[in-house]
Structures are given as structure tokens and as C-alpha cells.
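ingest -> validate -> predict -> emit
validate: passed (alphabet ok, no gaps, 279 aa)
predict: started
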Amino acid sequence: MLNRKISIYIKATLILTTILFLSGCVPEKLVKADDYPSVSPDGKWISYVFDRQNGGGNSPSGIYLVSIDGKGKKYLRGDAFPGFPIWSPNGKQIVLYNGIATISGNEIIDFREKVDNKGMVDPCWAPDGKSILFTNYGNAHLFVSDTLFKQIRELSIKGDMPKWMPDGEHILSGAQSAVYVTDTAGLKVTKLQNSTGKMSYYPVCSPDGSLIAWCTDNDAIYLMNSDGTNQRYLTEGIHPAWTPDSKFIVYSKSDNKKDYSYFLWKIGVDGNNNVQITN
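emit:
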């Protein structure tokens, strides 16, 4: 069974390519994707994954940095499966699926690998920066590790694509057609988002704790208050990431008019000031 962590843009691209192939209109230009953005704590940089699907684009696949205004693009590291590059709270490190990269002057100066062949699916720093929350393949169990990967413990709760709430005491997760928040002991699970018949995933809470963004399997991003109220559509796209001031969301969106590649965009929480970052 396909793992639900497979990126939605890959699934969408396969469906689209099949449709175009059957219609005899397969585009000649190969697909590329800028995806899984994370904004640095100072708000100046975005880490993200660039994926050359079927060889699309001229740059190598891997982890990149780009300034919030789309300038100063920087290649950091290549991986067969680069994972989800999430900034640490102090802005000095990025966690990947297989370890932690220490950044200095926009360069990786150290890489601490998690050596157990299991990796970390959807890794996420704790708000205090002292531990990392993640899942693994197959069972959607949650784990917490210290940053040296010496002490790893399994939590008594399950969840997909987990993210810490800013209080460090609750965890967001997406499961099938809903978004949930759970205390770390697993004693109280609250369903925040109403079922819409669509898969809901990648929920992320704003740094100020007031809003939660998430996306669905039809490439749409939604917002709601942190208690689940005032749910509303924001924009077309996937994998939202908050800016430190909680006023903007960086996300990935398909350019359906050209070659169906994905690029990074930024939008205000009021739905205004929607600008493209990468191209």
C-alpha cells in the first residue's frame, strides 16, 4: 500500500500525465517541483526541496535555500530522498529525514546522521529546540528523539505528519479527512476540522498559536482558528509554512498553465498579497 507521506504533487503529476498521454497531448517539458518550504526564525530564508521529476529542470535535486523575496538561491545538499527540511527554533540547523544539518553563512558545516535505516518521516523540532518529533514508515507511531539521536522514545499516540503546537504540550496531526490535536500523553484527542470527504494533511499552527493551516488532496489550503472554529479556504496549493510573524504563509503551487511544475508562493492570512517566490 502506498504510504500517505508520498507528496501530493507526485500523485497529481502521475494522474495528469496519464490524462495527457491518453489524449495525445503529453507536454515536452519535464516537470520540476519546489516543495516542502520552511521559513527561518528570522524570516529571511526559506529551506525547501527541489525535485527534478523525470529529469525536469537544470539544477540537481536536493535541499535548497532561497531568500524570502526569491533572491539568493543556494544549493545545500543532495539526497535520494531529501525529506522535509525544517528549521530549528534558533535558526542554526535544519532537520532532514536522515539527520540534522548545521548551517552557517548559508552553508552546511556539519551533518549529524541518524543511523538506523528508518529515517524520520515529517520531522519537527520541539519549540524549545531540544528534541525532534517524527513518525516512521508503516505504523504512523510518533517518536521523540534528542538532537544527538541517542535517546528515542515512542509516544503512546499515533498520527500522520505531526507538528508541535507552540505550547510544546500538544501535537497536531492529519488523518484521512480530519485534523486532530492531541496532548503528548495521548489522554485527550480533539478533532478540529470537519470531515469534507477529502484527505486533510500537513496541519501547521502559526507561531503565535492563533491559527492552523492545512491542505487537502485537491491542492487547496485552508485556515481555521486554533480551536477549530472559523474554517475557511485560503488558496490553491500544498504544504503551508508560516512566517515568524504569523502574518504570511509560504506554500507550493502548481503552474497549470505551463508545464505543471510546482513553485513556491507567499500569501497573507487575509488572502491578499499573493506573490510567487521561485520560478
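Residues 47 and 65 are 5 Å apart (CA to CA).
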